[in-house]
Amino acid sequence: MSTTFLFVEDQISIYCGTPVFVAGVVGGLLNTIVFLSLRTFRQSSCAFYLTIMSIFNVLTLVFGLSQLVFPALSGLDGTVTSLFYCKFRIYFDVVAIETSMTCFCLATIDQYFATCSRPRWQQLCNIKLAQRIIIISVIIWVLHGIPYLIYYDHIVSPTTNKITCTNTNYIFEQYRIFGIILILIGYLPIAIVALFGLMAYRNVRQIAYRTVPLVRRQLDKQITVMVLVQVVANIFTLLPFTTVDAVATSKILTVDPVTQAKLQFATIVTLILSYITFAVSI
């Protein structure tokens, strides 16, 4: 049965992961070009956050989803043949995911402030401040990801005698599961974007009753709709993986080999689903 699950996992990685990878990379690059080419978007701090998010979405797909697609296509796993790639692949993937989710949260919060009626809050929406926040955020996540470079290593499985690239520190593994996956890139950012996204939508509906230039009104509506679409996509694509991954790490459930194979299969399916979050073209 385990062999069957492995075969199905490879087929899902190839026929589902490949379209997501191609569409996500192309869509992310197109998003970046559009945001940078239109002057209206270049002057918007929210659009700046979305531009940086699009760039890191592409990096997430390159360092993350490619690790599922290419080994399934070629049968070669770079994380097994190279210790350097084992460490840095997961490091860059996590840094890119965390930065992308941070940008999305900042874009949602920024759009809420931009649509508020209070001038003092609207002043927080400016390019210079956004650039400083992004630089600080990237530095924080780059430093935060250093344990991945330290604790990920080549381990020989006692049952299969195969080399795997895995975390070797129990404490960091618990933090990775419950601190990073469940909270930092799971429930916390989704709660933030859902809250501020709904408040921004409420503000946009009230803009019609305020004296606001037509161009500004249309821009706020357009960006808010883009953000809300991404919020919905995140809820239905990211949460299943964070939940399944936490369940799959339970020592009680993973004692039985059949149950372990089923959980591994569910993890692969929901993992590919989660990458749709970074492939959606807003």
State the domain count. Answer: 1
Q: Say how many strands there are.
A: 2
- The CATH class assignment is Mainly Alpha
Number of helices: 11
Overall pLDDT score: 82
CATH homologous superfamily classification:
Rhodopsin 7-helix transmembrane proteins
Q: Give the terminus-to-terminus CA distance.
A: 40 Å
CATH architecture: Up-down Bundle
Name the structural class: mainly alpha
Q: How much of the residues is beta strand, in percent? A: under 5%
Sheet with the most strands: spatial strand order: 1-2
Main sheet characteristics: 2 strands, antiparallel
Order of helices and strands: HHHHHHHHEEHHH
Please tag this protein with its features.
single chain, 282 residues, mainly alpha, two-stranded antiparallel sheet
Commentary on this structure:
The chain is mostly helical. The protein has one domain (2-277): Rhopdopsin 7-helix transmembrane proteins (Up-down Bundle). 82% of the residues lie in helices and 4% in strands. It has eleven helices and two strands, in the order ααααααααββααα. It has helices spanning 2-37, 39-42, 45-74, 78-81, 83-114, 119-122, 127-144, 146-151, 170-207, 214-248, 257-279, and strands at 152-156, 163-167. The chain has a two-stranded antiparallel ribbon. Strand 1 and strand 2 form a beta hairpin. The longest helix is centred in the last third of the chain and has 38 residues, at 170-207. The radius of gyration is 20 Å and the shape is elongated. The chain starts with a helix and ends with a helix. The model has no long low-confidence stretch (mean pLDDT 82).
